[in-house]
């Protein structure tokens, strides 16, 4: 075994209220693909940012070729031969493909001016190497998500880097595109590059990775050769317990139809969405990132206009013009992006909880502060919120407690349909279990829940029925009895 | 800039469209007052617009980085007064030295704005709204409210922008040179490319190792330096320096940029656009009296044009966003 | 996990400090402002022996009351993450409209109604363009700043409107009780009204929500666009009211009336502790800041400092007031980070 080209020792990074990385270690070897595995919130993304110089670690050593280095800025990473392909394409939509590829690595002519002719030729060569047909003069905004990814590949290759980091590169790609990507990864590996492949999809980890490193809650759990472990071993390391315990599915009495959606369509985002939701049921929506699930939910909540189709809620026609309408009629939406859409971080907990129903807590426009506080306290207690006081700003809470505020805020409006979009994204395991348990309690009390999730175990563990979406359309429906992981994933990737 | 894509075509279309409107205006005004489109008069109109063109090009860089510089007109007044007083005190100073000094003084004022934006992190609108009145107030402190008139200025001081070369004034040639330098700067230097990048997507810029604040600082320095140079050119061209020089001119500059299709949201714009926007406004200002409209209409027209232009820009910039349905692509 | 539970008190013990933490934070800046008001007041008594005379004090209020009346709705607008740079031009437009109506023989009440109506329309146009086309308020109001004053120039050119009816003078020159002017009493009443509106009503709470996070406010069922449109219209209405008071006080209209006031109004608002980036601030803070600005400019007037030099002061104040807390917060955060890493 050769020596690691990159080694991290005892790296820590703390944010207010969160220890994102707690003394972790990592080794990358040339000519090997190392998987970094962990649940959301395990510290993978923070590690990527440390490795690319975006965050400076609080402590620990980074060694490249056995020599300690410091990473102060993204340019340091480049200097040390590290390039990264980030999860969301963090690139420049208004610039051309060539400009994006060479944003930090330009060629100059004899006058010291940028030599676009040369860079264009080099861009062409790089794209040909990647076997894609992209015009290097197109502005990036014209490209599909998959092609943007390939451009960021080309940018990573344009720097002659020995270490390539890929942060969930397959998250929004189709089945075919993923196969193309694997081919590229293998090619880079065969050229002797050390690759860090971040993923939480086991099939791909076993398909293309040589080694693994597992993180849990910001801590290093284990590392080794992929050939020495089974999927169950990795899962056990990731979650620290067996899967079944996380999803306490409460069997509930499923009643009559509460909501029905017929042929709902949007000009560009989704088409012909049909489903019923029954009392006391959790209806799961599964699909790849960008399959159009959130867009459908936002239309149900009155945030986007639809072009055709109809909805019924509680046997009445339901046509929300804005979220206020939907709330009034008993349908609420807990959005995916907690920090930007779900809560107002810089306002106190109690003001967040009462915001959607301020009208009901006021007399001729004046807020009844005592009643407001009572409502906030009731739901904070019910959700076992951990906070110093209800006047504390939400930004001071941990991710899990922030999510409790968001859920509390919507429960306080007494809805009968609650839509939760990626309810446990990026929160710790303890809070995750609390949220799941709570969702079980809700349906037991007769509420109906629509749960959008990209986590297969969560969907399979919680949902009574699953609807799978792909490219804006419903492609499959499963009942609890006939759902299998393979069938759901196959449907979601658009394979027929 | 890039002509191959649909959007690229639209953007360059925009400049052709503007050029077309300018041509139409020339024909229209020329048909009622033929002397207006005589080469001599056009050269005069260009001379009159030269300062606006330079300021618009510099302002464009600031706007590209999602900032705005409202202090340019006060910078002109301050730098103009400085060099006028220096000229009175040291009449032997060569005009070229005066020009370089004005660039330096203006650059310092711009750097002050830039530091407040970059290192202190105050929004640029607040910084430049503040320095707009600070710099203007300093003109009063410098001059004691007195005017510096033509007879106090030396002939060399006055001659530089008015000298002609190939039928165009030196002022016009300076504007042409500045425009070309800006074109090269935005298209063929790393700093130029980075300015587009930090304004287009600040987050991605950080991931690429670009310091957003630093590039904002650089654009403020450039804007200040150009404004300073225009300060000398203005005072020398109009042969008078006083406190109210170029009052509210910053509005014309911003208007020129907005008309030229520079996106106020940052990251989108071309030097051609800014220059054409300035020429468009310059034409209106010069044509109004010719077609018998009172110059009192100028302010309202530039205001109306700003509002209309931002509305039009906002529609054309509406980013299509990610489309999920495949059919919708076609 | 268990450690975390221990660190936090159980939920049922959540202390009941209704608003206290928030209020304490707000109070700090306002206390500082009051201290500065005291200094300015004392300095003025030293500059002029007549300063303490009730009539002199009453006179002092005239130079800031109209601006202060615009500062009240402007505070709400800035808290909601917007800004209106066109208020001074709106004054010019409204004043020209009143001058024109006067030549047509309108009475005092009609003049006041016309002034306020023109202001309201101007504000509504700002808000409509901004919310309809989703354009930043700064550019739109830079445009209308030029447009509204431009219209005033088109109508009036070099001319002046004078000879307003003598009854009309009451709005800007009249006294309600003793030395208390109509303008000043109006401002006090409005300040109380705005304080209640911002701090006690659902509307005020929604303004804060929008200013802190417009997306989350939208997702919480708040009609963000309608609230913003209303705020712009409100600012326009009060700019119109200020135009009535100002025109009545000086008894004439020129297109250059109230030039540069937008800067002073915004400075008053941020001096009062309103965050220029939105989301935080109080009417009480703005109320004190108004007096501080008024006293300082009056004192400078007593010392015969020309207006243009005072604008240096205003500009510096604007930058200092916004810059100082940012630097302070950064030092504080750095220190906190430092102590965290030691734990």
State the end-to-end CA separation of chain A. Answer: 43 Å
The chain pair forming the largest interface, with residue counts per chain, is: B-C, 45 and 44 residues
Beta-sheet strand percentage of chain C?
under 5%
Q: If you compute it from the alpha carbons, what radius of gyration of chain C comes out, rounded to the nearest whole angstrom?
A: 22 Å
Number of helices of chain C: 14
Strand runs of chain A, count: 22
Q: What's the architecture of the largest domain in chain A in CATH terms?
A: 3-Layer(aba) Sandwich
Mean pLDDT of chain A: 85
Return the average pLDDT of chain C rounded to an integer. 87
SSE series of chain C: HHHHHHHEEHHHHHHH
How would you describe the oligomerization state of the chains in this entry? heterotrimer
Membrane topology (chain A): Peripheral membrane protein
Protein name (chain A): D-ribose transporter ATP-binding protein
Organism (chain A): Thalassospira alkalitolerans
Domain ABC transporter (chain A): 6-242, 252-496
Describe the structure.
Chain A: It is a peripheral membrane protein. Chain A: Residues 6-242, 252-496 form the ABC transporter domain. Chain A: Its main location: membrane. The complex is a heterotrimer of chains A (496), B (330) and C (343). Chain A is built from 17 helices and 22 strands. By secondary structure, chain A is of the alpha/beta class. Chain A has two domains: 6-241, 3-Layer(aba) Sandwich (Rossmann fold); 245-492, Rossmann fold (3-Layer(aba) Sandwich), CATH 3.40.50.300. Chain B has helices spanning 6-32, 39-64, 72-89, 95-120, 124-143, 155-162, 170-188, 190-200, 202-207, 212-238, 249-259, 271-290, 297-317; strands spanning 164-165, 168-169. With 330 residues, chain B is mainly alpha-helical. Chain B is globular. Chain B starts with 5 loop residues before the first helix and ends in a 13-residue tail after the last helix. The model of chain B has no long low-confidence stretch (mean pLDDT 88). In chain B, strand 1 and strand 2 (168-169) form a beta hairpin. In chain C, strands 1-2 form a two-stranded antiparallel ribbon. Chain C is 75% helix and 1% strand. Mean pLDDT of chain C is 87; it is low at 1-20. Chain C has a domain at 54-258 and 275-281. Chains in contact: A-B, A-C, B-C. At the B-C interface, helix 5, helix 11 and helix 13 of B face helix 6, helix 12 and helix 14 of C.
